[in-house]
Design goal:
The protein folds into five domains: about 10-110, Helix Hairpins (Orthogonal Bundle); about 115-235, Rossmann fold (3-Layer(aba) Sandwich), CATH 3.40.50; about 255-340, Regulator of K+ conductance, C-terminal domain (Alpha-Beta Plaits, 2-Layer Sandwich); about 345-460, 3-Layer(aba) Sandwich (Rossmann fold), CATH 3.40.50; about 480-550, Regulator of K+ conductance, C-terminal domain (Alpha-Beta Plaits), CATH 3.30.70. It contains 21 helices and 24 strands. It starts with a helix and ends with a helix. The model is unreliable at about 1-15 (pLDDT under 50).
Length: about 550
Amino acid sequence: MKIINKYSHRLQLASRRNTVLISRLVIILLSLVLINSWLFKYIMELENHYYSWITSFYWTISNMSTLGLGDITFESDLGRFFNILASLSGLVYIFVLFPYTFVKLFQSTERIHRDLRNTISDHIILTQFDHISSSLIKKLKQYRIAYVLVVPELNQASELMDMGFNVVSSEMDDQETFEKVNIDKSLGVVLTGNHFSNTSITYAVRQKSNVVPIVSTADSESASEVLYLAGASNVIRPGEMLGRLLARRITAGNALAHNIGEFGRLKIAEATVKGTPLVNKTLSSSKLRELSGVSVVGIWEKGSFSTVDATTVISERSVIVLAGSQEQIDQYNEIFCIYNISVGEVIIIGGGVVGKTLGKTLDEKEIGYKIIEKNPDKAISEKYLVGDASDKDFLISSGIMNSPAVAITTEDDNVNIFLTTLIRNLRPDIQIISRSNLDRAAEHLYYAGCDFVISLSSMGANSIFNLLKKGNILMIAEGVDIFKVDSPKKLIGKTIMSSTVREKTGCSIVAITSGDEIKINPEPTSVIEKGKSIVLIGNAEAETKFFNQFSD
């Protein structure tokens, strides 16, 4: 019975792709019949013969099907030439288009039940197609890392394959599923569904492999605990991560640097500068390197990351990206811990997981806040204001006119865009940060007036990528990477200054490594030597330029 069910499942042809193929075949046939019938009538009338449309269809079909009864013939060479063309069009349709289409129809159900045991390795296995996995696939393609997406539904698998994804259709609880996708030679498995399905799939994976890394998402601490018990290697909670990340972007409060990533002993941190002496200074005049040892390797402005040089001016809204050892980051914080902006309460719109985590993080930073929540059931403390943030009068009564910043955390991108427009009109000077659920919504939010937007899908994909691909690449934000390469031949023997890497590519060299040794923030006069590696930071465009310019 299992075999019968398996093959009956494969014979389902209701996918959009099959419908399109059949529709295309029928449209071509009808078009050929209509055109040939009209030409038949037209040429026959030139020969002073008049036939009905029924007779025209009869002649066309008999000629296209190669029956050629011969009861109706042309007298002119033009008519005979058309007769040849009509017969050839029928031959092409019957012997080329028709079989090709039906081969494609049946292949469409077979091609997504492939066995990849002998054709794929060093790959990532994904078990859900959603916003996070879609963003992750883009990153895997960028770094030429193979992947396979496993989905149980035949129709969805067929549609995804038509969109260019590498898909296998199979049930998650089928013992053969993870054998077919060569799990023993994979880099890891990614689970981005709900925590119930993620737990079941984790057990299915562990039945086949005890060593393959499993990275799963979860919505709560209790779900995380269960997933770890089931055998997950790492569990991330995207909503809480996003809340903490949004809190780091708020310029109110202290000016301390917060670590956002590490590459061995090299630490990467971010710091807001509002209220510090750094505002309106150039990097060279700020003397940060001399004072603390850290290097400013980039600046976030209006959600855009850019590398810097000595003449770059730090503005009040800048978020600076620092590179250094932990000791150097601590030294920076000792210098700037005294700068604490006394401000009004931050307004958080949305009391879900993201909003609650954001509020908790602000509490830790001793920054006051209020949460506007439409659903009274979610108003769990005196910090909550129950009401509709899209109501201008309610928004004003919430205290937004005196607030230094507002964080928009609702799950609806359209709502976030509306609220951004409304708030920017009310307060042109306020800092607005927002979440976006889709990458493409971020652009609209910036256009509406957001100072900073963080995409949930991109942030989740970055975190998963870093957990699975340990080694030479670290994504610290959307489109911003730290990567390590062996010293290119074109740079060996040159100093960092004379290499002009930053000028030519936009990447900054933040460390030089040799084995386990790492020299953080090397001097511009440091020589790039053979046998050593360099660690660079840059956005995606700068990284591409570096490899195009200096790859061996």
